[in-house]
Design brief:
By secondary structure, the chain is an all-alpha fold. The chain is built from 11 helices and 2 strands; from the N terminus they run H-H-H-H-H-H-H-H-H-H-E-E-H. The chain has helices at 9-39, 42-63, 78-98, 100-107, 110-115, 121-144, 156-182, 187-203, 216-224, 226-239, 254-277, and strands at 246-247, 250-251. The chain has a two-stranded antiparallel sheet with strand order 1-2. The chain is globular. The termini are far apart.
């Protein structure tokens, strides 16, 4: 007579534990793969540092005399003002283009191998988000050492707040890039769409010019851009509340910046998980 096997609570616990361990390992492996890919592409590291430095030294020095000190309260120079924006530009560019790996993997068939693996697609998306965000923040941290050379005093508090701002911005932009990349089939289409999205997002974020003297329609567009609030976090971390973003007469509080950036990132991540779940 056959003996019926009755599942025990311990067996269910072990099954859940193994699934959790498997998904955590998946997140770690996808994250590590992105870091290895970065190490094997030194040109990406060089260009990721050269472009922000070019904006800071050339654009900052060139426009120093054109930007009136009355537009920059708190007695900061234009190079000091633009430095947090340059950090934000570096994060946005690196985070968005980190999702090119998704299109690359799809073209060469590696994406299909990952999708048929016995792991949740949520863990794949989280691994990509952590990997892309880590690469972006790492490049931003390297640029922080330049701050004292342009007159910005760094403290433990300001550096910690800046790292928080960069992490939030990298999370939101990486998740956004993954949403775009999940709908792209070819590398050429991805690069064209990314350029069309990235440049307006950067220039409408207040990264390179103050938002206080803009025409009404342009000021509205800047404040509808989620990246504006990430840049505001970074700028206030280094330069204080004198450079705070305003909406009309309302000074935007720090918690509102965090809610906007974190909310955008969470929404984009949820959409990315949904889109990956529909990929066959």
């Amino acid at each position: 007579m056959a003996t019926e096997t009755i599942p025990t609570p311990a067996a269910g616990y072990l099954h859940r534990q193994s699934a959790l361990t498997r998904n955590l390992r998946t997140i770690g492996m996808v994250w590590l793969r992105d870091l290895i890919r970065l190490r094997r592409m030194p040109t990406r590291i060089i260009t990721g540092l050269a472009q922000p430095l070019l904006f800071l030294l050339v654009l900052g020095a060139g426009l120093e005399g054109l930007v009136s000190s009355r537009q920059l309260p708190g007695g900061v120079t234009y190079q000091e003002f633009i430095f947090p924006g340059v950090l934000g530009m570096s994060i946005i560019t690196s985070a968005l283009f980190s999702s090119v790996a998704i299109v690359w993997d799809r073209e060469f068939g590696f994406m299909r191998e990952m999708l048929v693996a016995p792991v949740s697609r949520t863990s794949l998306v989280l691994g990509k988000a952590v990997g892309g965000g880590s690469v972006s923040v790492a490049q931003g941290i390297v640029l922080i050492v330049i701050a004292p050379f342009i007159g910005i005093d760094l403290t433990v508090r300001s550096v910690l707040l800046l790292l928080l701002a960069l992490l939030l911005l990298a999370f939101a932009m990486t998740a956004f890039g993954m949403v775009l990349a999940s709908r792209m089939q070819r590398m050429e289409s991805f690069q064209m769409v990314m350029s069309l999205v990235m440049q307006p997002m950067i220039f409408l974020s207040g990264a390179i010019f103050p938002l206080s003297q803009l025409p009404g329609w342009l000021a509205v567009l800047c404040r509808l851009n989620p990246a504006t609030y990430g840049i505001d976090l970074a700028r206030r971390a280094l330069l204080g509340s004198t450079q705070a973003l305003t909406i009309g007469d309302w000074v935007v509080p720090l918690w509102f910046d965090v809610v906007v950036v974190l909310g955008m990132g969470s929404l984009m991540l949820a959409i990315a998980v949904r889109l990956f779940s529909n990929i066959e």
